[in-house]
Structures are given as structure tokens and as C-alpha cells.
Write a structure and sequence with these properties.
The structure holds two protein chains of two kinds. By secondary structure, chain A is an alpha/beta fold. Helices cover 36% and strands 16% of the residues of chain A. Chain B is 31% helix and 43% strand. The chains are: A alpha/beta, B alpha+beta.
């Protein structure tokens, strides 16, 4: 820096790091490589903290986990070619769940672009369908503008990943940067909804008899949980959430019926099917909710759809009142207008909904150590600020069904893409983001092995994550589907030669505890929580435990098995 | 039903990929696409003819609008417009058919722009229907090559 003090010329790498600092970045999950040498050299002089995962996929999932539990934009970095392609799953994962990321990739020097040079991959081309936007930087003077735009695009409207591809020579060139003025004429962020439509919504709420709120990840993103709760309480509206919407209302709130969809609560699915008014907020009528049958979903209802993304309106179901806007601002306005109107007559509806809820509670056997019992015990021992990060599979659904999430942004899971291997690195991002809050990773023996190398990152950074491994020795979710729908013909779902995970943890310098009986569950969890460092709890569970209820493929959501 | 969409997009490399990729991955059917720079060198105009019902077209418009590089999308299908397409057509001719072919070209107000011993090349502009009709008319003589630009459209001035 000092040698540049006289002139304003700076290296591209330095311009980049300063631009990141201006966006408030204090943490990058990155993995070095040949074309990133100028950047890693400049990083030595930057205050930005760098976390080294053991695989680029771990880096991008960690940035994603960081973003989910904070609401801030997560940043990751990888080198050209294989480094960049290793990010692809993580980028797609963030895109599907609308998570704000700025993804930085190194690229070969501009003179070699397009020549199949060493470690070259067209990462902007590869990621076009899974990024909100992307840049290939050809001139270091553009870096301040591009970084500013990238953060704005990633974090506003419907959030998502934005990729910046940085050729080595661009990082190395010394230039006087252009000012950081955004040029985004083609990008508008909806905020307040149409007021006449809002009045229509308030009137419809006042006049309905069988209302349901269907709350999704957009509620969390917009910070709309508080106003949603006020509206639900004021108008006596039952609430169902999607997987991504968990935390919209605190667990145990009397208006909350639980999760809706393929592994949803029976009362939630029945209520959606029978309602006369569906207030859908920050949702996309995903096929895990509708069973892929949009035309059979909430057919008796007037459907109100509030979303920040116009392209989600009427994509799957017909919508009677669409409102494009920020969920919090729109709901505040709806609540304002509604307060001048009579409350709806919903006593009979609540009698019905309560009857469903009482008749079909979420339940499990208490005579043995079940995964559900482990998850409920976690909830009993944790506090309201505890974060639960999950992988993908049966354990994910059990966590969604049975863990009492009280506050939003404390539940992070790969919803849309369903990425096995997400959990462990995402938990790293979450723990680094909020070092004082307890982090539980709920994982299975399948998912855990997909990013198991990140145990080294946990150990090195002394992250006190409590890993709850529900170890059934099988790929449980797929096996369950084979059991239910393929005549118990189990194909490639046995993980017979699993390693001893306690020893694996210990090899990384992480404490491992095996739990074999139901009597040990609470004490082992309590011991792990009390221990100041990371702990792996290996719970031996039966491969025959099922996620219930379940809607068979192709069936409407009222036709649940095991409710 | 065919819809004609006019999109103003940024004039950068990669923009066409984004638009074309969007159509491909969401299985929207492009009938024709023409792109060229506008009077503002930073913007290109895309004229996209796409097949689909109203709901599909609404989705196409919304998805296009979501792209950061797309500044605006207008559906001109129901509007009063002038639409034109340019075609270059090479037709086989023999001493026996030459006169008839030239007469057909004349009827359609085409222009002969190149001529060889056994074939001639015709330039024809018009709406899509006229070009289709011409192609039908000359096909029996031997259609050797056909190049069409795809439809371009401009709104009629409101008089």
C-alpha cells in the first residue's frame, strides 16, 4: 500500500478487497489456487478474515449457512477450473433457496480465455441458470462498480447468488479504479404492494370463514414473522409453513398447525385443502408442498399470493389476488387496513382445525431410542437462540417436524435443491457468524460423508458445533421410498461398511460419543452442550424408522400415509 | 398461439446466451428471434416470436423481466404494428421455367439480386404470411436455399 501512496494506481486484487470491505465484508470462505496468487498475496495485507475449508463445496455451503443465520450476504472464493466447478452444487443450492451470496472465482488470464488452457472452465456459462447474475471482469477499473452491483443484486429483491469471475491478469494489473457507480437499469426491487389489492386482501380476510396462512422462506427473508404473527392473532388465522418457512411463527404458537406438504402435519394439509381463503406469503407452491398437483391444491380457496418475485405469481396455481412486494411491508399494510374491518367468523373452522390437530398429532413410539426422541430432547436442552442446521434426508424431516424452533433464522436446511453434504459446512458458517450461540448439526450417515472433510475446518477453527449424527447405516430416505413404493426391493441404499464415526471424529481431534440406548440420550446431549469444543454424537438408530406422515408420489396432499 | 415480444436488452456478450438459455431450460418454444443494436449503442432490441397460451406467455415475460440484462419486455401481439421479415431465396431455373419464376417474383414484388446459369436469388420483404406464400409458389420450380431473418416489428404511430 505504502508504495502506492503517491499515485492512485492499485492492483486489481487490492481494489477487490477494498471494495469488499466497503460492502461490510469481514469474512471470506476461500480456497487458493494458481490464478488467485495475486489475490491471496494481497489478502495478507487485508483485515478481512479468511476461513480455509477443505473442499470448495464446503466453502460455498459455509458462506450459505452464514447468510441463512444472519441475513447478510455470504462470500466465498475459489480458484479457476476445478475450484470453480466444485462450487456449482453450492451455488445451485443457494439459488433454489434464494440465499444471498457473492461468489468470487479466479479465471485464467484474459489472453488465454477460450483456449482450453490449464484449469480453465467457463464458470459464468456453467452457472448462468443458477445465478441471479454474473460478471466476467475484463478490466480491473470496473471492480468497484461490479462488486457494489453484485452485493446489491445478491441481497435485494429476491436474494440469490451472484458470481464474479476474475482473470489472473485483472487481479494483477495496476490501475486507477473507476468510481463505484451502479448501472442497473434493468433491475427493479418491488417494495410496497398495490394498495387497491391490499384493500381487497383485507376485505377477503374479513369476509372469509375458513382461512389459512401459508408461510414460506420469503417471510424469513423479509423479516415478516412479527407482522405475520400479529395478523394471524388478530384475525384468528391458522398458519402452516413450508420447510423454508420454519420459524415464521414460534413452535407451539396456538395458531401454528405445522409444516405443510409431503411430510407435513395432517392438520396442515387438511386445512390447506379445505380452506376458503389461502394467504400465501413468500412461497412458490413447490412440488414438495403441492405434490406437483397445482390444479388440485386448495381448490376451494380464493388464493392470495404475496411475493417479491413477479415470476412466481401464477407459475403453479391460479391466483385470485396477486401482490408483488416485500412481504413485511405488504403484511403491515394489510394489517393496517384489516384493523378497520370486522374480524372473520371462524369459530366453526377452528373447531374443525383443532379436531384434526388433536386427532392426528405428530407422534412417535416412546419404547426405544428413536430419531424423533433425540430431536425432541435437543429442543428441551437448548435455548431460543440455538441454531439447528440440517443435512438432507430422513433426519432433516424429523428435525423439521420435531425440533421446536422459536425464532426465525435459527433453522437452516437445504430446501429446494435437497443437497446432501450441505449441513456440516453450513454449520461451520453458522457458528462463525454467531460464535456465542449454540449450533446443532443434525445429519445422517449418508449426508455426513459427503462433506466429512470439513471436520478438519471445525477442529482447526475450534468451532464448538454439536454434531448429532442419526446413524442408521442406510440412505434412509431413499430406502424408505423403496420400502413403501418399490416392494421393499432395496437397491444401493445400504452403507454397510461405514467407518466408526467416533474414531473418525477423534482422528480429527474432535470429541466423539456413541449413544446406543434411550437412557443415554439426554445425558449425552447435555454433556455435549456443556463441553466447550466440538462434539460428535453418534446415535445408533434403526434403519426401519420412517418419516411419517408421507404423501405417496403423485397423490394429492390429503392422501397421507401414517398420519 | 404465436406472440410477438419486443425486449430491450443490454448490448453485451453473453446476453443472447442468457435469453436463449432461459427459453431452453423452461421449455418455451421460440419461433423466431432477431437481435440488433438500437440507436443507443448500449442496448439491443430483441424481437422474439414465441408459441404458447396466455399463461405461458405471461411466465415468459416475467422470467425475461427478471433477467438483470433485460430492461423491458412488451407483448406486441394485440397491438397495431407493422411487421416485416426479409428473406433471401435461391431458386432453380431452366430456360423453360425462367420466365414463370420471374413473373412470380414480380407478382410478390421481390427483387432478383443474383443470377447464375441454373439458379437465381431473390430478395423478398413482407409479413410472414407473404413470405410463406411466395415459398409455396416457387417450391415446385426447385427451392435450393432459403434464409429468413425472422420477424421484426414496430408499433404503428397513433394518428
Amino acid at each position: 500500500m505504502s508504495m502506492n501512496a503517491g499515485k492512485k494506481e492499485l492492483k486489481g486484487a487490492t481494489i477487490l478487497l477494498e471494495a469488499l470491505e466497503k460492502e461490510g465484508v469481514d469474512l471470506i470462505f476461500g480456497y487458493p489456487g494458481g490464478v488467485l496468487l495475486p489475490l491471496y498475496d494481497a489478502l495478507l495485507d487485508s483485515p478481512i478474515r479468511h476461513i480455509l475449508p477443505r473442499h470448495e463445496q464446503g466453502g460455498v455451503h459455509a458462506a450459505d449457512g452464514y447468510a441463512r443465520v444472519t441475513g447478510k450476504v455470504g462470500v466465498c472464493l475459489a480458484t479457476s477450473g476445478p475450484g470453480a466447478t466444485n462450487l456449482v452444487t453450492g451455488i445451485a443450492n443457494a439459488y433454489m433457496d434464494s440465499i444471498p451470496l457473492v461468489v468470487l472465482t479466479g479465471q485464467v488470464v484474459t489472453s488465454l480465455l477460450g483456449t482450453d488452457s490449464f484449469q480453465e472452465a467457463d464458470i459464468t456459462g456453467i452457472t448462468t441458470p443458477i445465478t441471479k447474475h454474473s460478471y466476467l471482469v475484463k478490466d480491473a477499473r470496473e471492480i468497484p462498480r461490479i462488486v457494489k452491483e453484485a452485493f446489491y443484486l445478491a441481497g435485494t429483491g429476491r436474494p440469490g447468488p451472484v458470481l464474479i469471475d476474475l482473470p489472473k491478469d485483472v487481479l494483477a494489473m495496476e490501475v486507477e479504479p473507476f468510481p463505484a457507480e451502479m448501472k442497473l437499469k434493468g433491475y427493479q426491487v418491488p417494495s410496497r404492494g398495490d394498495s387497491s389489492k391490499i384493500a381487497e386482501v383485507a376485505k377477503a380476510l374479513s369476509e372469509c370463514h375458513k382461512p389459512v396462512i401459508y408461510a414460506g422462506g420469503g417471510v424469513i427473508t423479509a423479516g415478516a414473522g412479527g407482522v405475520l404473527r400479529q395478523l394471524a392473532e388478530k384475525a384468528s388465522l391458522p398458519v402452516v409453513t413450508t420447510l423454508m418457512g420454519i420459524g415464521s411463527l414460534p413452535y407451539g404458537h396456538p395458531n401454528l398447525l405445522g409444516m405443510v406438504g409431503l411430510h407435513g402435519a395432517v392438520a396442515a394439509n387438511f386445512a390447506v385443502d379445505d380452506c376458503d381463503l389461502l394467504l400465501a406469503v413468500g412461497v412458490r407452491f413447490d412440488d414438495r408442498v403441492t405434490s406437483g398437483l397445482g390444479h388440485l391444491f386448495a381448490t376451494k380457496a380464493k388464493i392470495i399470493h404475496i411475493d417479491i418475485d413477479l415470476a412466481e405469481i401464477a407459475k403453479v396455481v391460479r391466483t385470485h389476488i396477486p401482490i408483488v412486494g416485500d412481504a413485511r411491508l405488504v403484511l403491515e399494510e394489510v394489517l393496517n387496513v384489516f384493523e378497520g374491518l370486522p374480524v372473520p367468523q371462524v369459530t366453526d373452522w377452528w373447531d374443525q382445525v383443532r379436531a384434526w390437530k388433536n386427532y392426528y398429532p405428530m407422534k412417535y413410539d416412546k419404547d426405544r431410542m428413536t430419531p424423533q426422541m433425540v430431536i425432541e430432547s435437543m429442543g428441551e436442552l437448548a435455548n431460543d437462540d440455538t441454531m439447528v442446521i440440517t443435512d438432507v434426508g430422513q433426519h432433516q424431516m424429523w428435525a423439521a417436524q420435531f425440533y421446536p424452533i422459536i425464532k426465525s433464522r435459527n433453522f437452516a436446511t437445504s430446501g429446494g435443491l435437497g443437497t446432501m453434504g450441505f449441513g456440516l459446512p453450513a454449520a461451520i458458517g453458522a457458528q462463525i457468524a454467531r460464535p456465542d450461540d449454540l449450533v446443532f448439526l443434525v445429519t445422517g450417515d449418508g449426508s455426513f460423508q459427503m462433506c466429512i472433510q470439513e471436520l478438519a475446518t471445525i477442529a482447526h477453527n475450534k468451532l464448538p458445533i454439536k454434531i448429532v449424527l442419526l446413524n442408521n447405516g442406510v440412505l434412509g430416505m431413499v430406502r424408505q421410498l423403496q420400502k413403501f413404493f418399490y416392494g421393499e426391493r432395496y437397491s444401493q441404499t445400504d452403507l454397510i461398511d461405514n467407518p466408526d464415526f467416533v474414531k473418525v471424529a477423534e482422528a480429527y481431534g474432535i470429541r466423539g460419543i456413541r449413544v446406543d440406548s434411550m437412557e443415554q440420550v439426554r445425558s449425552a446431549l447435555a454433556e455435549a452442550i456443556a463441553y466447550p469444543g466440538p462434539v460428535l454424537l453418534d446415535f445408533t438408530i434403526s434403519p426401519n424408522e420412517d418419516v411419517l406422515p408421507i404423501v405417496p408420489p403423485g397423490k394429492p396432499i390429503t392422501e397421507m400415509l401414517g398420519g | 398461439m404465436l406472440h410477438t415480444l419486443a425486449a430491450l436488452v443490454e448490448n453485451h456478450p453473453g446476453v443472447l446466451t442468457r435469453v436463449a438459455g432461459l427459453f431452453a431450460r423452461r421449455a418455451y418454444n421460440i419461433d423466431s428471434l432477431s437481435v440488433c443494436q438500437t440507436d443507443n449503442p448500449e442496448l439491443s432490441r430483441m424481437t422474439i416470436v414465441v408459441n404458447g397460451d396466455d399463461q405461458v406467455i405471461e411466465q415468459v415475460r416475467n422470467q425475461l423481466n427478471k433477467l438483470v440484462i433485460v430492461h423491458s419486455v412488451t407483448d406486441l401481439t394485440a397491438e397495431s404494428v407493422v411487421d416485416r421479415e426479409l428473406a433471401l431465396i435461391r431458386i432453380q431455373v431452366s430456360p423453360e421455367t425462367r420466365a414463370e419464376v420471374l413473373q412470380t417474383v414480380d407478382i410478390f414484388r421481390g427483387r432478383v439480386v443474383d443470377m447464375g446459369r441454373t439458379n437465381l436469388t431473390v430478395e423478398l420483404t413482407g409479413d410472414v404470411g407473404k413470405i410463406n406464400a411466395f415459398v409455396r409458389a416457387i417450391r415446385p420450380y426447385g427451392l435450393l436455399e432459403l434464409v429468413r431473418t425472422g420477424k421484426i416489428v414496430i408499433r404503428r404511430s397513433d394518428v
